[in-house]
Amino acid sequence: MSAVAAPAAVMVPAPRPAVDDAVTVTVLPGLFVPEARQWLSTSTGRIAPEGYSWMQAVHWVAGSGLYQPRRHRSHGPRSFGATTVRVAQELAQLSPCRPGIEYLVRRTGLSERSVEYHLAMLREAGLLAYVVRGTRVRGETAQASEFARMIPLEFDQALGIRTVLRGEGAPEYTRAVTGIAEAGRELMAKLARKASRKVRKPRAKLSSKRPATGAREDGEQGGMTVVSDEVRCTPMQVGSSSVSTAGATSFPPESKLTSGDAKSPTPKKSKAKVGGRKLNRVGRRFQLARELTEQVEWLRSCSVPRIAWVTRGVADAGWTVSEVLAWLHVRGEAAQVRRGSGLLAVLLAGAETVLDTPAKRAAAVEQWHASQEARRRHRIEEVRAERERHDGSWDSPAGAALKRELEVAFTRINDAARNLHPAVAYGSDEHAQANAEPFEISERERASMREEARAQLRLGSTDLIEDMVYALGRTEAELLFGEDLVRRAQQLDGFARSSLTTYKTQ
After folding, report:
1. What pLDDT does residue 397 have?
2. One domain for residues 341 and 408
3. Contact indicator for 325, 357 with CB cutoff of 8 Å
4. Range of 493's domain?
5. For the CA atoms of 409, 415, 416, 421, what is the dihedral angle to 10 degrees?
6. Choosing a second label site near 212 at 20 to 30 A (CA), which of 108, 174, 344, 379?
7. Per the confidence metrics, is the pTM higher than 0.90?
């Protein structure tokens, strides 16, 4: 090479390094956010600008393997996989991100406990942060938590993403992206393709060895089924395959069909279902406990999980709530209940061994219904007799002292009536009208009658006050007994006449 060509060779730029030569993911020790830093104010990540960018971070966490749930708990999912990504896809479509547990259960088909597990995993991976934490108070409407979709700081470090604060004094979670390193562009493009596709629930395995159309193996996702927008099944699964599913349907021969004369086979007893799903053993326990807390008065303040534990024996034996109520009726009722769960445990001890067959439990339920009907008829007879007593003739009191006081009171009432209506009582006898004594009760007699009326009210009887109101009128009775006693007597009498109220006198 000549001396003249040497300077020209120096001016040729060096070739750009290939992307494959660089490390795409920085080796990080692990990814875990403790509970104290799962709030927006304490988070080290930044808020995702939209759901698409957030899903890129979700797929990165799923493929990196930096977050392992079993390192921090001994139960729940073993890895951040396809199910967690499916839950994240539902959260990416919400604005604001305020999902309820029931909403996610309905959208994903998971159980309530599984949804709670995957939400906790998204928070521990730094992808979600609390804005407002929901509340679940017994007897009140549950409030859903509001989340902020976050991009972890480890994601920015691994892909070489550069960020700056939006303004002076702005919080760290408001950082904005200004660029990305050359080494992270290829990985970002892969994450963009994954974020644009939907991860759906894996279908059942086909008998054919040929894989289903649209299913792709993806090493980073741990067996996820990724379905593109072009190949998407309708809710009735029509159009996703060129092979008709009707050809695989087989009908029984006519010889197997029962005729009109033959007896149809006994159908199997269907198991309890909640929301279209069959209940397992634990589910049946909680269902029975919930029904008991709603129907038994002294169990309404008890915790449903505690009652489920107490009734585990009868629930596993297949008891219904009617059979449990019938057994409680057989055992008897308590006057005072201090701890409902403890009393229920005592009453249910050995119940599944005594009523060990469905026939015995059915007989107990029938006896319980008969007792309820007898109690209802007895109550009707009591109310009818009470009304007849009030509507019929007046019965004089049994006490001798009270009889004497009533005779004196009636005598004075008659004298007062003669003073008020002399023409009726004495005709034109002016001398008799002038000599008539005024109606007057001493304070000692008044106090004695008030004390007697109070004693009767304590026993549930209103005869004395009601008789005085009937004879003298409400105004005179209030002057005699006081407004408070007359009002209480009439309220008690109204309760006794009502068919919705039950009280007993001793």
Report:
1. 64
2. no
3. no
4. 400-497
5. 150
6. 108
7. no
Which structure tokens are listed for 279?
């209940």
Q: Which residues pair with 97 in a beta bridge?
A: 147
Say if residue 118 is in the same domain as residue 196: yes
What are the Cα distances from residue 264, in Å, to 118, 156, 256, 259?
47, 68, 12, 9
Q: Exposure string (b/e) for 484-500, b if CB count within 10 Å is 16 or more?
A: ebbebbbebbeebeeee
Examine the domain organization and report whether 319 and 408 are in the same domain: no
* 339 and 438 both lie in a single domain: no
pLDDT digits (tens, 9 = 90+) for 197-212: 888 776 655 544 554 4
Q: Does 337 reside within a domain? A: yes
- How far from the centroid of its chain's Cα atoms is residue 88's Cα? 25
Task: Match 């550069």 to its residue by tokens.
Answer: 162
CA nearest neighbour of 117 among 148, 79, 77: 77
Using the 3D structure, point to which of 320, 337, 356 is the last residue of a domain.
356
Give the containing element (helix H, strand E) for 274: strand 273-274
Q: Is residue 157 part of a domain?
A: yes
CATH of the domain at 50: 1.10.10.10
Q: What is the pLDDT of residues 68-96, one digit of tens each?
A: 888 888 888 988 999 999 999 999 999 88
Cα 250 from chain centroid?
A: 43
Number of residues assigned to the chain: 506
